[in-house]
Structure formats: structure tokens, C-alpha cells
Amino acid sequence: MHLNLFMHSRGHHEASWRHPESSPLPLTDIRYYQDLAQRAEAALFDSIFLADQLALGGDVAQAPRTWLEPITVLAALAVSTSRVGLIATASTTYTEPFNLARQFASIDHISNGRAAWNIVTSWLATAAENYGGAGQVSHADRYTRGEEFMEVVKALWDSWATDAVVDNRASGIYARRERIRPINHRGDFYTVAGPLNMPRCPQGRPVLVQAGSSDTGRRFAARHAEAVFTAHMAKATAQEFYADLKRLAAEEGRAPEHVLILPGLSPMIAPTEAEAQRMVREVNELTDPEVGRKRLSGRFGGHDFSHLPLARPLTPQDFPDPDTVEAARSRTEVILNLVRRDKPTLRQLLGYLAGARGHFVTAGTPEQIADLIEDWFTDGAADGFNIMPPLLPT
């Protein structure tokens, strides 16, 4: 069983920042992240995770949409902890392989072998506007570019042999030059000579994590990822995803057990179920449905939902075809699956998404949450969980 703590804002519920029990520290105060990381380490979590977004959220007037750059934060957390794994998001679309290879190799050295990279291809149109203004890259092209990116960064991390550094002061030999090799990559997107300008990192390569659940994203994860974050609102869809990704990993010549599936889980936990439900109602009362409507629009590439009454049951026809939306395909499918299955009103859908943006949300006692985790784990739905507390700290 593997448990990761997903550190996000003052909690994963969209109104968490307004709750009196959430942290009073600004989200730009490193002490906030250090405290959470140390708590996670003491609680024996395997890892902690920081997501990223490369543009200011359009709803910044109603919610904190500011945060520190994740890889920089990992450097601080690396010296504030000693055992917990450190995962940060970085985009293959809006950085260069050499830069990223250096950054994560550096974190791996600083942390003595605890760095991990959450690979994303970035879907926000507003992010594209911050990186050259050439327009948003299509879903297919993002993954094509991402495949070449992976080829380059892996070659860079492997460009130093483990025994390349001699560091012999008496002989005056620092490194065996023949054990440091250029990569001489020439591709459609990148031309990189190499080698990397630092010794091989403790893990050889940082741990690779991925979160895409589209057909292309699943194949990408099966080829490259050692852990996969995924979003499911029901155990049945989690089981389908689990079985499919394990199958794809085997097709890629990998041992399926070497690809860990970690669905998101956002639990409100209290000594009694009644108290947990009271806390859910309390934080839900702080939400603004019109803010949720704007976020839903962003999820579907700017589609206009303003004409839909909050009390009207939704159908798939109220949404654009996911294949026509240059957005996060996996998350749009989660939302549409929920609409097909439960036929919620718009208000209900916005309430579901306010809890954890399409991940599984629950409330109960510690024993009830443990039973749920065990059920998914033993029933072929998860190898562990990406824990997303509704309120932070908890």
C-alpha cells in the first residue's frame, strides 16, 4: 500500500481557504510546505506531491491561485525532511529537456535520492500565451513532443556512468572521461548534444510519475511511469483503469507490478460520521456556484455554461464533444461519466467538483476511511492512494 500526500492550496475543497481551521500562513510562505512535509514524513507517507499551473487562474478574485514554483519548493523540502519522497510537476511542452534533467538531478542529489517528476504535457490555453504566444499545442502533438522529450531526458540522466567520478586528489583525476558520453540527439523537436553537466544522481533517474488517463495518456504512462495518479468517482471505473493500465504496461514489456496506480482520494475524517458530515456541510456552505460554473467552463475549453439553470438535471448533450476540446481529456471524461451515471443537476455537479475536482470524495470515521481504502486496494482498483485532504493542515 502506497500513500502520497497531495499538497494543494489550503486544502482540496475549493472553499478550504475560507475555512477558519485552514492554515493562516500565506501560500508563498515556505514554512507552510515544510510543516506539511514533516507531518507527512512522521505519518509514514511514501511521498508528497506538488502540482503546477503555468498561468494565473481566471478566478483569482475569488480564490488563491498563487503558489511557489514546485521544483524550487522541493529543494527546500529536501533539507527539511530525510525520508519522504518528493514529487513535483513539470511540463514537457513548456521547458527544455536539458533544463529539466539538471533540475531533477539536482533535487535527487540534494535529497539523497528522493526526487520524482510528475510528467504533464499542459492543456491550458492561457499557459500557451505565456510561452511564446504561438497558440495551444494540440493534444496529439503534445504527446508526440512529450515522447521525444522523454527520450532526451533519459539519455541525459544516463550520460554519466555510476563510476565516472573518481575524485582522486593525489592523482589529480576527477572523472573518467570515457565514462561520460554525449547523447548527440537530433530529433523533430530537440537538438541536444549532452552530456549532462553533473554526475549521475543517486537513483540513476528520478522516479517518473504521470497523470494522463486518455487513451494516449495511458499508453504514455504504460511506457514511462512508475506511478500513475488518476481520478475516479466510482470504484468500478477505477478497476477498469487499473486493469487496462496493467495490461498496457505488459504490452510495453514491463512488469505490471512496477507501475503503481494511485487514485485520488479526498476524505473528510472526524471521530464520528455525523461530525465528518457536519464538516462537509460547513465547508460546502462557503462555496460560490458561479465560481464553480466558471471553473467548469475552463475544464471544457471555455465552453459557455452560463445559460444552464442550477436546478436542471444535466445530460451529455449539455457539454461539448471531448474530442473537440484541447483540454485535460481524462478529467472531462470523468465529468461526463458522472453525468451519464448519476444525471446530477448543475448545482450537484458543481458541488462534486468543488470537493476535489473530479476525484473520489468521502467523509467518515478513521475506521470507515480505512475500510474504503482496503476495499479498493484488495479489489483491484488501486495500489495505494493520492491523498487529497479537503482542509490543510488537518
Explain what the structure shows.
There is one protein chain. This protein is an alpha/beta fold. It has a single domain (2-274, 359-387), classed as Luciferase-like domain (TIM Barrel), CATH 3.20.20. Helices cover 37% and strands 15% of the residues. It contains 12 helices and 13 strands. It has helices at residues 30-42, 70-78, 97-110, 125-128, 139-157, 215-224, 235-251, 273-284, 289-299, 329-342, 346-356, 366-378; strands at 2-7, 47-50, 85-91, 115-120, 165-168, 173-175, 185-186, 191-192, 207-210, 227-230, 260-269, 360-364, 384-387. The strands form 3 sheets. It has an 8-stranded parallel beta barrel with strand order 1-2-3-4-9-10-11-13, surrounded by 7 helices. Helix 2 (70-78) packs parallel to helix 3 (97-110), helix 6 (215-224) crosses helix 7 and helix 9 packs across helix 11. It is globular, with a radius of gyration of 22 Å. The chain starts with a strand and ends in a 7-residue tail after the last strand. The relative contact order is 0.15. The mean pLDDT is 93.
Low-confidence stretches: none
What is the name of the CATH topology?
A: TIM Barrel
Strand order within the widest sheet? 1-2-3-4-9-10-11-13
Share of helical residues? 25-40%
Query: What letter string, H or E per element, gives the SSE order?
Result: EHEHEHEHHEEEEEHEHEHHHHEHE
Number of helices: 12
Q: What is the mean predicted local confidence, pLDDT?
A: 93
Rg measurement, Å: 22 Å
Proper CATH architecture? Alpha-Beta Barrel
Distance between the termini: 21 Å
